[in-house]
Amino acid sequence: MTAIALTIAGSDSGGGAGIQADLKTFSALGAYGASVITALTAQNTKGVTGIHDVPADFVTAQIGAVFSDLAVDAVKIGMLSRPEVIRAVAAGLDRWGATKVVLDPVMIATSGDPLIAPEAIATIVTELLPRALLITPNLPEAARLIGAAVAASEADMVAQAEALLALGPAAVLLKGGHGVGAESSDLLFTAAGWRWLRAPRHQTRNTHGTGCTLSSAIAAGLAKGDSLEDAVSAAKIYVTEAIAAADELAVGHGHGPVHHFYRWWG
What we know:
The chain is of the alpha/beta class. The chain is 37% helix and 22% strand.
């Protein structure tokens, strides 16, 4: 059977993040990618200059079109900027019985531009966190979800991951990419315990789409039948290597993309 992964997210016209990064990641990791577009962004490596939200009823129509025909094995959710769209996605997950759901609570682009209306954050917490197998916030996103200061230590990360787990997801992957030090340390936290995933921190400004790529890599692994822990471990390796190879690309004049196809391009 063909492994099928669905991304529900916003479009990045510059191609480095969002739907475009997700589909590249699915392809690179051997999963067939389908998509539901929740917003259009006028965006490049230097920033976001405009956001056009897709109406909630059309998001519902896209979800129905995909699930009614394709045997979706896993779902990745990214940019959801409006409460009504979030509720439409939650209803779609329920209607079609989606259980392998990876939620990346995207709030700010790599450029620093906001991607979500403030009132939508509470809707994500109530509508989507309880429906997620895994959520993958970075340190600033985790802090906003629970109303706390950004974690400044590994002990803070453990405490915040535990607080996030209490909001309903089955597991939390708290990403440490915004931290400092020689290693980038992510924390996988479940009711059964936690483990650290560590990798060398590569110095590059070309990190556009890193979070999208990690969450979609996890979804690709789940779609292929990997356990959650195996999917997360493999995704961490893939993203680390894609960041390490990012400077091989010459794309744009700002924060360039990670190299999704580093294993195949010369």
